[in-house]
Specification:
Blueprint lengths: L2 H6 L32 E6 L7 H14 L4 E6 L6 H4 L9 H6 L10 E2 L5 E4 L15 H10 L5 E6 L5 H9 L2 E6 L3 H25 L3 H12 L9 H11 L1 H11 L4 E8 L7 H13 L4 E7 L3 H7 L4 H4 L4 H19 L11
Parallel strand pairs: 1-5, 1-6, 2-4, 2-5, 6-7, 7-8
Antiparallel strand pairs: 3-4
Helix pairs in contact: 2-14, 6-7, 8-9, 9-10
This protein binds adenosine-5'-diphosphate and magnesium ion.
The site of adenosine-5'-diphosphate (ADP) has 16 residues, from helix 2, strand 7 and helix 12.
Length: about 350
């Protein structure tokens, strides 16, 4: 059984329901963010590898947004190794995300803790010990709806490492997904793996949620036909599906267009690292047929560790550092795309 078919044919769940000057990204990031102005826009920060700076980017991007006067909720969704509360210096956190996920609640507000940072609150993961088995099947869908109705302008999810179904669903829940990588080959490798799993998971979720037996049958045929071993990319899947059932092929392609991903390259150390983002963007298009955005490089910053020790985000302790400015630049790009792409499609499947 191929890698693709293994993922697609999993049993359907009931669920969801200075280089001081690093050149900025030249191409536009591919993002499409929540359409309804009244709803909270959800951003997810994730990635395939631990220690690359996901929590650091999520916390600092959240504070950067709050400094622009936006009301922000950070959600610590790294259920195994939560540390957003430490990065934000929030000591007296109340209930946690796992309490929400284990409950039948539809309102996230009782689980929110205040922080000392203006305009910024937290759903902590401190002392969480949630296993996937504890979760209700509807928990991600319920969280999504609760965040949209939370009353904040932005909710930023800090997601744990790895390609577990739960992490992928949390990432897919967001209107804008940001993948953090470093320029190191191991991190890049894990980022590609994450992307591959993410889009297959998306196809599977679409297939399960459509209640459309023709779509499911056509997808099964894509993976069981004599050509199955030749299917290497998401574009291959769409192409083959279109041949088998043009209408369903178009439908899946349109639904996939709602999925939006950008990458940020963190802990860049030398000028040549600046080519990582653009070349990953190109590689995604060439090998997966997926158009992703690139929102910038964040320089390795010696004060980052100090800011963590001080339990204060870098954008507050060292607002003029290159990394802080780069994070503000990434936020700016996400906001810019939010305006530009309100009516557009973010993801294009080429080839
Ligand atoms: N741009 C950066 N420069 C220097 N250190 C960084 C940078 N980004 C993150 N770090 C450091 O890397 C460590 C791991 O970051 P963290 O956000 O906890 O990773 P993750 O959430 O991906 O596991 C943190 O201690 C942080 O200080
Ligand atoms: Mg983390």
């Amino acid at each position: 059984m191929s890698f693709f078919s293994r993922i697609i044919s999993r049993k359907p769940e009931k669920a969801p329901a200075p280089m001081k000057k690093m050149p900025g990204p030249r191409e536009n990031p591919g993002l499409r963010i929540a359409q309804d102005g009244a709803r909270t826009a959800v951003w997810a920060v994730g990635g395939g590898k631990g220690g690359v700076g996901k929590s650091f980017v999520a916390a600092n991007a959240g504070v950067s947004l709050s400094m622009r006067g936006k009301r922000v909720l950070i959600v610590d969704a790294d259920l195994g190794a939560a540390n957003a509360h430490t990065l934000l210096g929030a000591d007296n956190t109340r209930s946690t995300l796992s309490n929400f996920l284990k409950s039948e609640e539809t309102d996230i507000r009782p689980y929110v803790s205040k922080t000392d940072i203006a305009n910024l609150d937290l759903v902590s993961g401190a002392r969480d010990s949630l296993t996937v088995a504890d979760q209700r099947p509807d928990s991600v869908a319920r969280l999504k709806s609760a965040l949209h109705n939370s009353g904040y302008e932005y909710a930023i999810l800090d997601i744990g490492p790895g390609t577990s179904a739960n992490n992928l669903d949390l990432f897919l829940m967001a209107g804008a997904g940001v993948l953090v990588t470093t320029p190191e080959p191991t991190s890049i490798e894990n980022t590609y793996r994450f992307l591959k799993c993410l889009f297959l998971r998306r196809i599977r979720n679409i297939s399960n949620s459509q209640d459309d037996s023709r779509l499911r049958d056509a997808l099964n045929r894509v993976f069981s036909g004599p050509w199955a071993h030749r299917i290497k990319t998401v574009s291959d899947i769409l192409m083959r599906l279109k041949e088998l059932d043009p209408e369903r092929g178009e439908l899946l392609k349109a639904l996939m267009g709602d999925t939006t991903v950008s990458i940020v390259v963190n802990q860049a150390k030398k000028p040549s690292d600046a080519s990582t983002g653009p070349s990953m963007k190109r590689a995604c298009k060439d090998y997966f047929g997926i158009e992703i955005g690139f929102i910038g490089d964040i320089w390795f910053e010696e004060f980052a560790a100090e800011s963590v020790r001080m339990r204060k985000p870098l954008v507050m302790t060292h607002g003029n550092s290159h990394a802080s400015k780069a994070i503000a630049g990434c936020v700016e790009r996400l906001l810019g795309e939010e305006n530009r792409l309100k009516t557009g499609k973010a993801l294009n499947f080429s080839r």
